[in-house]
């Protein structure tokens, strides 16, 4: 991109000047709104980032606890615990549903876990290890909750990141390309209109000068015609030539006297 911002190719008229000013107002308002949207998304982005860091820190502890509880359950109940669990499970007790949350016009996906029906303690009545298996189950349920929360935060994080990049590109385009181009176009139209106004003023001055010269010429012609008629009248009344009549008129004009017939 060159150092000097280009202008739009428009016809320099008063109507186009008004249209460009309206476009500049709209671009300014759009830039302000997009800037506020970018700031709001950035605040939400930082909040989600803090939650992700906290969730990841807690996830390590939760996964470690659940893995240790599984080891304890296997130690107490034996290695056949897997087959017993699979035989007693008919459907998933914990399910996940998704919804959307609107943040400054950006729809963020949210995942929530919920229990489908009551949790049955079928494994509690086992000959040995029932209580430990229930503790292991509770540890893994907590791990699932943390994973669902982390997945929701991570998805929202990526969506917000892309939305912030898009919004910032639009803000930069309005600030560095669109608005300067419209402002340059307005300056160009104003300059052209001023030039046209100067040309019209010069044209009017020339017309007025021509009219004044025409009026002066007509006045002189009328005066000469009147003098010619008067000289002819004097020549007929006094019986002198036209030259003598003109001389009499000139002498009378110099003395500022009226000729008596």
UniProtKB/TrEMBL annotation:
Keywords recorded for this protein, A-Z: Ion transport, Transport
GO MF terms held by the record: proton-transporting ATPase activity, rotational mechanism
Pfam families in the record: ATP-synt_D
InterPro entries: V_ATPase_D
The keyword Ion transport belongs to this UniProt entry's keyword annotation: yes
Family in the record: Belongs to the V-ATPase D subunit family.
NCBIfam families (alphabetical): V_ATPase_subD
The name this protein goes by in its record: V-type proton ATPase subunit D-like
Species name: Cucurbita maxima (Pumpkin)
Gene from which the chain derives: LOC111486278
């Amino acid at each position: 991109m060159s150092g000097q911002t280009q202008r739009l190719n428009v016809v320099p008229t008063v109507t186009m000047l008004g249209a460009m000013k309206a476009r500049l107002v709209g671009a300014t308002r759009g830039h302000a709104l997009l800037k506020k949207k970018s700031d709001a998304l950035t605040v939400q982005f930082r909040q989600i980032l803090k939650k992700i860091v906290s969730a990841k820190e807690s996830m390590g502890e939760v996964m470690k606890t659940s893995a240790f509880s599984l080891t304890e359950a296997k130690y107490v109940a034996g290695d056949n615990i897997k087959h017993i669990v699979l035989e007693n499970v008919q459907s998933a007790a914990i399910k996940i549903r998704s919804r959307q949350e609107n943040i400054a016009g950006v729809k963020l996906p949210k995942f929530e876990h919920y229990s489908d029906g009551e949790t049955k303690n079928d494994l509690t009545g086992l000959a040995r290890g029932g209580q430990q298996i229930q503790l292991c189950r509770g540890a893994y349920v907590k791990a699932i909750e943390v994973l669902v929360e982390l997945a929701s935060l991570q998805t929202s994080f990526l969506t917000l990141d892309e939305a912030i990049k898009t919004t910032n590109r639009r803000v930069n385009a309005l600030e560095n390309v669109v608005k300067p181009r419209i402002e340059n176009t307005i300056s160009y139209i104003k300059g052209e209109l001023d030039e046209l106004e100067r040309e019209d003023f010069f044209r009017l001055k020339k017309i007025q000068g021509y009219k004044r010269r025409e009026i002066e010429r007509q006045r002189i012609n009328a005066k000469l015609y009147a003098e010619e008629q008067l000289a002819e009248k004097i020549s007929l009344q006094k019986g002198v030539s036209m030259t003598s009549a003109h001389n009499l008129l000139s002498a009378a004009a110099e003395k500022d006297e009226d000729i008596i017939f």
